[in-house]
Automatic annotation (TrEMBL):
Residues 184-311 form the Aspartate/ornithine carbamoyltransferase Asp/Orn-binding domain. Catalyzes the transfer of the carbamoyl group from carbamoyl phosphate to the delta-amino group of N(2)-succinyl-L-ornithine to produce N(2)-succinyl-L-citrulline. Is essential for arginine biosynthesis. It holds the Pfam family OTCace. This is N-succinylornithine carbamoyltransferase. The lineage of its organism: Bacteria, Pseudomonadati, Bacteroidota, Bacteroidia, Bacteroidales.
Length: 320
């Protein structure tokens, strides 16, 4: 594997899951694979889980790691070509990216949607420039439209906890005071559609996701109806995708908060969220603290998804 930005990059999903479970049995069995190789992790946005889990995964593989927060200590980057650079941005991405590539073997990039231009966001303007100009394998640590390391960890977690071969998985919109990207729900939908699970998406009208990610999922506007018989509830907020409201909060309706009453409609479902989560907006304290909440094992699996992806990239490098 050269680059990792979406589920298709992994190839055979069942095989990738098997690799992940092998790594989980002994995460140090490939500790020679990354010897003398350097991972550079570039953050345009904040992170707790992605930063720690990806660094740990790289260390398990014997890699060296460098972490750069672009907005803290680096030169402010211009990303538009053709701009007369007489403002507050002294360096252009078109020089910065190949320079970064000189100091490492693999690059991870976190760059969220900016909500300035939908086309730029959905064309992955920043991530694609790293792929084009770094001359290194690049993987997404959450980009504008997808968060594949999170979705892979979500899938690993569902496989570990599922009680039937084809569980009912429900992704529900839940309220949040700020405007959040669609990357996590897009990506989760993409990965769920790559399985044979029963997959349902529920949200208020106006929060329809890009149909390319919704795929064959059932969209149910009645949240309670969607929860009936669910084996997994995956909660997430996202801002509007549809024009003219792209990137906007069009509702903070607290009747969509996941609470114990709604969870009682399910098949004793497990509760999932990628974290960070705003308690009593997205989910009530009692649900996230209940035995059915698997948000911590889900976060723990971020190390496993990152290590599986890095291992595949390193194996690709050694086959060159
Ligand atoms: N879920 C996730 O990506 O967490 P961070 O934003 O803290 O990395």
């Amino acid at each position: 594997m050269r680059h990792f930005t979406c589920v298709q990059d992994l190839g055979d999903l069942k095989q990738a899951l098997n690799e992940a479970f092998e790594i989980k049995k002994d995460r140090f069995q490939f500790s020679e694979l990354g010897k003398n190789k350097t991972l550079l992790m570039i953050f345009f946005n904040s992170s707790l889980r992605t930063r720690l889990s990806t660094q740990k995964a790289a260390m398990n593989l014997g890699m060296n790691t460098i972490v750069l927060d672009v907005n803290q200590g680096a030169w402010k980057l211009e990303t538009e070509r053709g701009v007369i650079m007489d403002g507050d941005k002294p360096e252009h991405l078109l020089e910065a990216v190949p320079v970064m590539g000189c100091y490492c073997d693999v690059i991870g990039v976190r760059s969220f949607a900016r909500f300035e231009n939908k086309e730029d966001d959905y064309n992955e303007k920043i991530l694609s420039q790293f792929i084009e100009h770094s001359d290194r394998p690049v993987f997404s640590m959450e980009a504008a439209t997808r968060h594949p390391l999170q979705s892979f960890a979500d899938l690993i977690t569902i496989e570990e906890y599922k009680k039937t071969a084809r569980p009912k998985v429900v992704m529900t919109w839940a309220p949040h005071p700020k405007s959040l990207p669609q990357a996590v729900p897009n990506s989760f939908a993409e990965w769920m559609n790559a399985t044979d699970y029963e997959f349902v998406i529920t949200h208020p009208e106006g929060y329809e996701l890009d149909p390319r990610f919704v795929g064959n999922a059932k969209v149910e506007y009645d949240q309670k109806k969607a929860f009936e018989g669910a084996d997994f509830i995956y909660a997430k907020n996202w801002s509007a995708y549809k024009d003219p409201n792209y990137g906007q909060v069009i509702s903070t309706d607290r009747s969509w908060t996941v609470d114990a009453k709604k969870m009682a409609l399910t098949n004793n479902a497990y509760f999932m969220h990628c974290l960070p989560v705003r308690r009593n907006m997205i989910v009530t304290d009692d649900v996230i603290e209940s035995p059915q909440s698997i948000v911590i094992p889900e976060a723990a699996n971020r190390e496993i998804s990152a290590q599986t992806v890095l291992k595949k990239i390193l194996m690709g490098l050694s086959n060159l």
